């Protein structure tokens, strides 16, 4: 665990961005501090900050040095990093349907074999978890979730697949994730969801926010097919649940 | 309504503007023109907003045809042979294609990307305030993909104004970087090697990243770090020790240590460096990098003021007169002896 009171390192990322680094490793406390600083910056609405990008261990702050200089921004970031870890807004919670196994989760049986448990037990442990969106990145809507059951942790594939379909739900290392668009993936595919974290011409275009909580439930192939059709018409598929 | 038809085009050509900002936290990369100064220069020539969408044309040739009326365009960026209806046309000028006329562009020479701006701009449906193509995310308008032969742009009919030229300053020198954010993952020796070596852009580079050929840069603690955010110009060093500069279509996060970051003012110059041409990096401090950014933005804003009426190169009495007064031998029939004209 990173020291929750240690000031972060401020690292230059070129002339128009600063990386606020809370830890060098994946760390629950560090991620909470990243998200807390992100919230605090949104609330402070500092002139000259153009965008923020939360990741597991750091917050990338894009800024316009013509509006706020490096030293002033650094001082503000350090001051705000010392604030409370508790988010000042309500955490959003989502229930996300997943069609596990079969052609939608081609690695489920291999994962079960590698872990010495049944595929049903893998699914049971995966749906039992409550996850937090630690970061969204790499490609639009690719959501990295922390909180995977330690008994489901296994290293990533030796050979990443160059093509995987949209909507895959996968595990890799100590994380689970939802990949929105079709693309390459080095994780183990457990299933697919019809929920689209990114969809043009839908309000909201991006469904999940860093800091949101996510839990999964299993659906059969017929339900998945129905949900896919509904998603095409702009339905969110994921249910927002009360805190 | 006039139209501009893509009659023939090579790969790596797409509609790009100033970029798509505000959604990097959701994994949406900004995209946008690789060389924004050249985009701004082309737009200035036809009276468009500096960061209006234009056609970014990769290293290969392209042919466009005007249909339904005249179309005024301007080409800046990587130099290449330009012909309109078989007449040679200079880079950095506007030119009007009359109905049915073809604009033929050859291969880029000494650069990678040219920008074809169209008077009145490119009509399209902005997504996150941008028409820029991001093929992976299916974004971009009017075509959410690289351009293909047969694509059609509905554009404004050419106005009556005279053709224009622009004086775009030639920038040169090493590619300047700010060290970090993860330069402490490399020894002093490796950082010195990075800064003193000649580098070349590999032929396998694209709008996502420029792979660099040169010495192997090894890491102090291995090459896997936990993913963090990237910027345009981040120089990450993967396990094989060959740096990759992250370009306009980069992933928004990356898991390799980033030794340095190209300054904004030099990013377009790096983007224009052709594969196989050696260049070097030079480290600068934050104050100098940001002073250069101010100069770069001032230069960009000055571009519309650098546009003047095109002096016809077919017959230029003033140039002849000036040259003769100055006492140089000038031939009225040999344009290469005229001042300002350089045989290519």
Automatic annotation (TrEMBL), chain A:
Keywords: ATP-binding, Hydrolase, Nucleotide-binding. InterPro entries: CT_C_D, Cyclophilin-like_dom_sf, PxpB. Transmembrane segments: none annotated. It is an enzyme of class 3 (hydrolase). GO terms for molecular function: 5-oxoprolinase (ATP-hydrolyzing) activity. Its EC number is 3.5.2.9. Residues 8-208 form the Carboxyltransferase domain. NCBIfam families: 5-oxoprolinase subunit PxpB. This is 5-oxoprolinase subunit PxpB. It comes from Bradyrhizobium aeschynomenes. The lineage of its organism: Bacteria, Pseudomonadati, Pseudomonadota, Alphaproteobacteria, Hyphomicrobiales. The gene is pxpB.
């Amino acid at each position: 665990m990173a020291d929750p009171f240690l000031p972060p390192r401020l690292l230059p990322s070129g002339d128009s961005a600063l990386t606020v680094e809370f830890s060098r490793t994946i760390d629950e406390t560090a991620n909470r501090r990243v998200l807390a600083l992100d919230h605090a910056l949104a609330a402070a609405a500092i002139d000259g900050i153009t965008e923020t990008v939360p990741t597991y261990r750091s917050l990338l702050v894009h800024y316009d040095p013509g509006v706020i200089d490096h030293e002033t921004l650094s001082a503000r970031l350090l001051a705000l990093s010392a604030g409370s870890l508790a988010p000042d807004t309500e955490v959003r919670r989502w229930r996300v349907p997943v069609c596990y196994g079969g052609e939608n989760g081609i690695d489920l049986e291999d994962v079960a074999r590698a872990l010495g448990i049944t595929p049903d037990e893998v699914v049971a442990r995966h749906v039992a978890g409550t996850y937090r969106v630690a970061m969204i990145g790499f490609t639009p809507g690719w959501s990295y979730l922390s909180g995977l059951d330690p008994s489901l942790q296994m290293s990533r594939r030796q050979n990443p697949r160059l093509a995987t379909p949209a909507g895959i739900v996968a595990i890799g290392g100590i994380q689970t994730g939802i990949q929105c668009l079709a693309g390459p993936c080095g994780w183990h595919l457990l299933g697919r969801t019809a929920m689209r974290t990114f969809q043009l011409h839908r309000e909201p275009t991006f469904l999940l926010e860093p800091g949101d909580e996510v839990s999964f439930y299993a659906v059969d192939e017929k339900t998945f097919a129905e949900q896919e059709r509904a998603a095409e018409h702009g339905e969110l598929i994921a249910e927002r649940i009360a805190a | 309504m006039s139209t501009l038809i893509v009659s023939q085009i090579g790969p790596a050509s797409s509609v790009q503007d100033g970029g798509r900002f505000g959604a990097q936290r959701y994994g949406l990369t900004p995209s946008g023109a690789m060389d924004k100064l050249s985009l701004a220069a082309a737009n200035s020539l036809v009276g468009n907003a500096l960061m209006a969408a234009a056609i970014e044309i990769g290293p290969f040739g392209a042919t466009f045809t005007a249909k339904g009326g005249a179309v005024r365009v301007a080409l800046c960026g990587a130099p290449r042979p330009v012909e309109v209806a078989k007449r040679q046309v200079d880079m950095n000028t506007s030119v009007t294609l009359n109905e049915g006329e073809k604009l033929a562009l050859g291969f880029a020479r000494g650069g990678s990307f040219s920008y074809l701006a169209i008077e009145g701009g490119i009509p399209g449906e902005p997504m996150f305030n941008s028409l820029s193509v991001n093929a992976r995310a299916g974004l971009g308008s009017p075509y959410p993909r690289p351009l293909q032969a047969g694509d059609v742009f509905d554009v404004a009919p050419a106005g009556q104004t005279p053709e224009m030229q622009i004086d775009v300053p030639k920038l040169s020198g090493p590619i300047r970087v700010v060290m970090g954010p993860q330069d402490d993952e490399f020894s002093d020796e490796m950082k010195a090697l990075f800064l003193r070596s000649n580098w070349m852009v590999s032929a396998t580079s694209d709008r996502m990243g420029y792979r660099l050929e040169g010495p192997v840069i090894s890491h102090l603690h291995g090459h896997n770090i936990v993913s963090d955010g990237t910027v345009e110009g981040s120089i990450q060093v993967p396990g094989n020790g060959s740096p990759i500069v992250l370009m306009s279509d980069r992933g928004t996060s990356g898991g390799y240590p980033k030794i340095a970051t190209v300054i904004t003012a030099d990013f377009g110059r790096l983007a224009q460096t052709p594969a196989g041409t050696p260049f070097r990096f030079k480290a600068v401090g934050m104050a100098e990098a940001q002073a250069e950014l101010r100069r770069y933005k001032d230069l960009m804003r000055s571009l519309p003021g650098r546009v003047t009426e095109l002096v016809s190169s077919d017959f230029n009495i003033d140039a002849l007169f000036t040259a003769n007064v100055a006492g140089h031998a000038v031939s009225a029939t040999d344009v290469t002896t005229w001042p300002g004209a350089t045989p290519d």
